[in-house]
Structures are given as structure tokens and as C-alpha cells.
Automatic annotation (TrEMBL):
Domain of life: Eukaryota
SUPFAM superfamilies, per the entry: HAD-like, UDP-Glycosyltransferase/glycogen phosphorylase
Annotated Gene3D superfamilies: Glycogen Phosphorylase B (3.40.50.2000), HAD superfamily/HAD-like (3.40.50.1000), Trehalose-6-phosphate phosphatase related protein, domain 2 (3.30.70.1020)
Primary enzyme class: transferase
Provenance organism: Carnegiea gigantea
Region annotation Disordered: where it falls in the sequence: 66-89
GO biological process, one term: trehalose biosynthetic process
Gene Ontology annotations for the cellular component aspect, listed alphabetically: cytosol
EC number(s) from the headed UniProt entry: 2.4.1.15
Protein name as it appears in the record: alpha,alpha-trehalose-phosphate synthase (UDP-forming)
Amino acid sequence: MQGRTSYFCQSTSRGRLQWAGVLSEQEERRFNQYYHPGEGGNNRGGDQYGGDTFFNEGDSCVVSYEEEPEEGVSNARIPSDATEGQEMPSHKGLLVVANRLPVSVIRIDEDSWQLEINVGGLVSAIAGLRDFQVKWIGWAGVIVSDEAGQQSLTKALAVKKCIPVFLNEEIVNQYYNGYCNNILWPLLHYFGHDRHSAGHGYQSLFDVYKKANQMFADVVYKNYKDGDMVWCHDYHLMLLPQCLKEYNSKMKIGWFLHTPFPSSEIQKILPSRSELLRSVLAADMVGFHTFDYARHFVTACIRILGLEGTPEAVENQGKLTRISAFPSGIDSDRFIQVLKLPRVQDYMKELRDRFAGRKVVLGVDRLDKIKGIPQKILAFEKFLEENPEWREKVVLLQIAVPTRTDVPEFTMEKEWKISDMGIFDQSLGFNALCALYAVTDVALVTSLRDGMNLVSYEFVACQDSKKGVLILSEFAGAAQSLGAGAILVNPWNIAEVASSIAYALNMPREEREKRHQLNFTHVTSHSAHKWAEMFVSELNETEVEAQRWRTQVRPSLPCNVAIENYLKSDHRLLILGFNATLTQSAEPPDRRGGQIEDMELNLHPGLCEPLRKITNDPKTSVVVLSGSKRNVLDDNFGGYNMWLAAENGMFLRHTKGKWMTIMPELLNMEWVDRLKLVFEYFTERTPRSSFELRETSLLWNYKYADIDFGRLQAGILLEHLRTGRISNTSVDVFQGARSIEVRPVGVTKGAAIDRVLQEVVHNEGMNSPVTYVLCAGHLLEKDEDLYSFFEPECPDELHAVKVAVPSIRTAETLKGSSILNLKGENYFSCSVGRKRSTARYLLGSSEDVVMLLNGLAGSGFDE
């Protein structure tokens, strides 16, 4: 049996629970029109459109939408009919994209449809955005396979400012019932996977999920106009932001999750975890109900994707995505005003008479395993056992709405519960629900996990007269907003919930009033309208933040210009880093085997041929300047005609000669043995960290360690170094993204390059100055003095600049000239992978370096 069921339980003299349900066929029909609209609908409890009130997570799902609107009660609706045939004022466009359109659709004949707007939290919230021309995009809840039907429905929905996405039955079953409900929904609520995720069926479900998201993207792009904002909703559309950015990178996109976002340890279970996270990060702003959910998302991006993030933003490939919490609310005025209506006053009187002499404890939930209804009943039963004086003096009224009936697990649970209960027919509409809220003494919300749960808000809004007590699960998002006035409980702790019921029923009026006032102030000041306004306003402002961020990020290297100028130059110098520049791009730090591969640095296979061609060109000198040891460079570049500068330029050789030491005189290395013990100590106590002893430096790397523990240990190590072992030693500390290196003072790549150039000039017998320089590397901040070494005095002006390099062999340098005669237009400094840098340009990764060097090799010297 589907539809809305209300269960009534009261205490008996034996302290047991006697159940009675109130359900009528008329009410069931009304409810199904709302929650299961259309013949092909498989909607889960309304999804997004009323928050927990009527859509978001569907907690308060007891509303009759066929009742005539009462006088004085405003019903939220999508502006449509009132403006039909009239020209709308010029406002900014907002495309609201959700799995379901906020419209109930019934097909009358081939080209005729009956449409009814669903009143709910998201609908009323969006309706309050007066400065935007809003259009809704989503599935209409019905399967329409014929072209004539699709055309007629599209035309009918256009009047309601709605645009349909047509899904067939197979996509609905696999995308919505399969991937969304069986995989994402349980995982987001900490219930893990079902059998599909571990079996061969997972990939097929995910493929259909991707296909459905692409279908939504196609419809959005077709209706998008320059300047529009796109607001995507919920876990059904996690791939949509990336799909849309591939259409138009300038499209301003926000994404909001109406469920919890779990800990990164839960998120790791999902096979498609990385693809989903990266797609969501394509949005300009990502919103959650609570700070905890936002924090979990950022942590997942750091731990799973290996990205850098703060509580406010995550950086991904040079793009900054803003992360923020936006606690939703309700239209509290609607609940407050409806209590003044004569009919509602009559309901309230009937309820007071019916429960005269007894306290009312109320629960309003969907019949879903996340709502904790069994735990609630056990707690109430335990309360009666421990407090026999309350028998016959208290009544528990549980409103439970069967939803997700297409998922067998939930259907069996519903049938098991109904089989143990007596059922009586009685309808309960919106007015009656508000009356019930108003006469309730204690509201009992025991969700095991909830995105927000706005039932608690509804109860508070209707309690301005009685000042009832709210018992609220600490695992509901609303606990962060209403925790000051509510009694927070762990729903799994039956004894705690039972004692909280007793405490609430015996609470003095003065305390009840103080608690209520705290919650009432929050509920009335944080409305659904303000929630939507705040999200859209901050989404609009992300462009300013993004522009500020982009000014700190280097522009991409104009490869065509770099190659063209390379061809025109008579003598070129290429200075290249090694790690993360000429090696293969690093995978996320949780990838198996990645640490072993990182410890064994190897030249990118795509560079073997272009490097051979470039290094054999008599017009081109190539120097690999790296922090790596000599043997590492020998193993990778011994077969090429180039210069190798190891350990940040302290050792140099041409591949046809022997290593020479070119480090500064009087270089003090006495500190090495002392610090070696310190680095070994932290390596032993930080799992998956590594320590490398070089001839001129010490390096501790925690890239593969637990990110939080690694950062903690790095902070302790830095403090120890600065205040202890090296406080009076002539060394510099270099801090990388996930590494700490100690070198002698003055040992940087920029300081070494002049000595390197002297040797290159001397040994190659140059008879003309260098007129083209390409300098590319993934450098630490202190090593970026390499870029400034070649920088002309006035980089914005394209003029010849002679850089006179001090020479030990003055007579052997170029007679009457400098080593460099460099124009600004012929100098290309490139940071590889580091978005914020002093370099002129950016190359995204070593893959971009491969493309660049292949371009230089293909257009240069022919052997």
C-alpha cells in the first residue's frame, strides 16, 4: 500500500504501545499526486523542492495540496500565469536545474496535459528571487516516448517557466532508482553500498548516471544565454557542473547538496569518487547545509584528489572553487499565519479535547531507515517503563509517510511495520498538521542522519503560544542551527532519548520559554527566501573572487609564439627542471604503487625522441638543473648531448665529460650529521614519509603520509629546526607543498645559474651570445630566483637587454660581448604545475612540457 500513513500510539496500563494508523483513500490519492506524480514517476519523497518540509529530504511530508488555499495564507508558486502574454522586466537569468520539476503532470490525451505546481521549500525560496528571471529544468516525472507528446508537454510547461528533460524508463530505473537511490543515497547517509556497488552492475549504473547528467547538460546549454547563472541541485546531478563547463568555461555555476556529505573515509568507498569530486569542483561555488558537510567535502578533495584546500575553497588545476555552508529554512510566516485561521483554530480545539489530560509527543517523518523511527519507539517504550507515573498521561503520535516504494528494502520495512499495527482511516492536511504542531508538548526528531530536517523548524514556527520542547538528533543538520534551544540526543542511545523525553515533559515553563525563544528567533530570521538570496548573491560574487585569484595565477604559455621565436633565434638556451617537469605527471597520493614510482624518478617516455633532436641541434644548449643526485641524472640523461646540474647546481657535467664541483667556496656542511638524526626521527614516526640524504642537502617528504598527520609532523619539525638544531647554523629551510629541505645558505638554483653558464660558455666555445631562453621547472619558492636571473629590467618593453655575467675566466668569455643578448620577447620562464609563481607563464603539468618540446623538436634542427 502506498500513500501517507499516520500511526497513532498511546500508553496503556501495561506500559506497552498500542498502534493505530489514520489513512483515508482520498488522502492517499492526494498524497500520491504529490509524491508520485504521473504514471511513470519514481520520485523519492519529493526530493529537493521543500527541504525537509516538503522536498529537500522530505521529513515533513504531510500536506494536502488539493485543499483550497485559505484566505490570508500565501501559497508559493512559480510566476507564470500572471505574466503570461506580458513582457517580463529585464532581469538576470537564473536556470534552476534539479532532478524533478516542481510540477505534477498528468496526461489527458495526446496533446493535452494537466499541470499542478507543487508548493514546497525550494519552490517558495526561489519564488522570492524577484531580481531574476527564473526557469526550471528537470524531469517532469512521467515517461513520454512519443515526439508529439514531448512537444505538447514542452509547450505546456513553458507557461510555468519549466523546461523538461525527457528520460526513458530504462534511464529512470538505472540512473534514479539504481545509482542515485541504491548507491549515492545510502553512502551519503553513512549506510554504505548495497550489492550493486560491489558487483559487476556498478559500472553500468554509473554509465547511465553519466548519460543522464549529459542529457540534463544538453537541455541547459540549449536554453542558456550569456550572463545567466545556473544553480544545480543535489546528488542526482554531481556530474552536471563539469558537463556544463565543457560547453562553456565562462558559465557561472553553483551546486548545492541537500543531503549530508559524509566523512572522506566513507567517500573513499565509492569507486567513482574521484570523477564525482572533480566534476563538482568544476562549479564556481559549492554549497552545503552545514559547515561539517562543507569540511568533509574539502577533506575528501584533499585526501582523495591530493588537492590543496581551505575551509572556504579548493584549488583544482588553477581554478578556485568556493565552498560554503548555507543552512536552509522555511517560510515561517506561512505557518504562523495559518494558525490564525478559524478552521485551524477548530482543529486545535478538537485535538485539545481529544488529548485532554495527556501530554502530546509528536514525530513526523518519512518511512525511511535514516529517520530512526524504530529507535524512537524503543526510546518511548523505555521511557514508559522507567516512568510508570506517566502511563495514561502521555501520547506519542507518529506521522510516517511511505516513500521510495520502488526500492525493495524500504518496501519490506514498511510492510513489516504495518503488519504489527492497527490501521484506521483519517485524513491529515496542511492545516491539520499545523494545528497538531501547535498543540504538541514535545517534538521528537530521532533521525539517524539527515541533511537538515526542517520538521523541527515547522514545529518551532507553530509553537509561539505553547512553547513546547524540541528533542533533536545531533545527526540532523538542523542541530547546528537549533542546538541552543533544543535538547540534542544521540538517537542510537535509547536510554539517553528516553531520559530526554522525561526531562522535556517535566521541564519548567521558564526554561521552555527561554529555549523556545532562541529557536523561534532563528527560524523566523533564517527563512527559505533568505537562504536562496544568500546563495545566489554569493554565487554572483564569485566572479570578483575568481578575478582576484586569476591575477595571482600565471597565464598559460603561448606555445605557438614560443616555438616561432625559437625558430628565429640563432642561439638558444633551454634550462629545464627534472622532477614534475620531465617526469610523468604524479597520480593522486592514495594511488597504489605511486610512492615507489615517485622514489624512482624516470624520464617521461614521450620526451625521449624530442630531447634527442633538440640536444643534437648545434644552435641549442640544454641544461637540466635539478635538486636530484648525480646518479639519478646520469641514469636518465647519460645518452643525450646536454648539460646536467645536480643538487641545485652544486655539481655540473656535460654528458660527454666528468662531474665537476662548482659549489661556492667555504660551504659549511658540518650541520648534516646533526640534522640527519632529526630527519630520521620524524621519518620513523610518520608512516609513508621518506628521508633523502644528499651531498649538499637533506630532504624529508611526506607526500604519501596521512595529510593531516603529515602537516602536523611538518609543523613540529619546522619549529624544532628553527628553535633548536639549526638556530645558529648557516642553513636555509625550504618548505614545499609536502616536503621540507635544508640546504646551506645561498644554495639556490638562481644563485647557481651564473656558475653553470660560465662553464657552459667555456666548454662549448660560444662565439655568439644567447638570444633565446626557455626556463621551465616545478620550483620551490626560494628557487624561483632562477626566473628573475634572466628577466629584463623592463619586461613590459620589448628591447635588447645585455646581462653581464661575472666570469672567472674573463679572457675566455665572449670577447667584447655578454653571454646573453636577450630581448624580452625571447624570454619564456614557465612554472610547471605551480599556479602562483614569479615566472611569466604557466605549464599545467609535465604533459604540457612534452607537447612543447615536441613542438620545438618538430620545427627545429633536422639531422
